[in-house]
Amino acid sequence: MELLIFVSLSILFLLIIVKTVGQSKPMKLPPGPRPLPIIGNLHQLIGSLPHRGLADLAKKYGPLMHLHLGEVSTVIVSSPEVAKEIMNDHDTIFASRPNLLSPNILFYNSIDIGFSPYGEYWRQLRKICTLELLSAKRVLTFRSIREEEVFDVIKSISLQEGSIVNLTTKISSMTYSITAKAAFGKRSKYHDEFMSAMKDVVRLLSGFSIADMYPSVKILERITGIREKLERTHKRVDQVLENILIEHRVKRVESELGISGEAKEDLVDVLLNIQESGEFGAPLTDNNLKAVIFIISSNDLQTFISG
């Protein structure tokens, strides 16, 4: 094992030297601290409060500075005025996210609205989300779910009269429950299973991966074990999402045959309607649907876990 680590680090060192020597004329970049060989400026962000390290560097180098995080060239913006200019005047240039290992594996090769590159596909996904999934009319149809969850929280707090109540946890849990029921329906038997799997997803996305700092050194994905963890977690979540799609398709057939009553339409039903109608403009695969469900649910679950 020690020999493998030594060989891997030696290869990493040689690759970075070759890449550095072979670089073309350097780009005109914002000011920033001088990077160290191999690690760049990673040493300046070590600790539990890296944002404070960035704030200290910004005081010295200005609101727009450049850092080398491993082999990744990174521009840090710490001024509201500069951030506004980037988001408003140059939004299309900065619309795409970097190509990272975690979303590529977890989100079906980054085909979700959160990580897919800016372009026609992303615009169509955004259109589905704004006009179909999150429109004012659609949100209104989930009013009964919100009222029910709020009532349950109030009832839970009233039963703990005289005790200390963690409102952050309760409200975060309520928010996720509303999202889950709106997405999968009140009667889905996969809520708890999905929530358990998604907790692993959020932890992986929130953590630091050295492999993302050296994307050209693919062996790091195996040495650190991050690829195996991501693939195992993706397989688990994918199976739950597949079961949810099957569950909804079965209910739709039963409803059409009159075997069961007509269930209230949820977000998965909306996506299945779009898939069947062909309104998207390009064929929507099951993986496309899973990726959309995945990203919508993971955002609220991250709030729940951090709460």
UniProtKB/TrEMBL annotation:
Residues passing through the membrane, by range: none
Pfam family for this entry, one: p450
Signal peptide: 1-22
Keywords: Heme, Iron, Metal-binding, Oxidoreductase, Signal
InterPro entries: Cyt_P450 (IPR001128), Cyt_P450_E_grp-I (IPR002401), Cyt_P450_sf (IPR036396)
Tagged with keyword Cell inner membrane: no
Top-rank lineage group of the source organism: Eukaryota
Recorded GO MF terms: metal ion binding; oxidoreductase activity
Coiled-coil zones: none
Protein family (similarity comment): Belongs to the cytochrome P450 family.
PANTHER family xrefs: CYTOCHROME P450 71D11-LIKE (PTHR47955:SF8), CYTOCHROME P450 FAMILY 71 PROTEIN (PTHR47955)
Descriptive protein name: Cytochrome P450
Taxonomic lineage from the root: Eukaryota, Viridiplantae, Streptophyta, Embryophyta, Tracheophyta
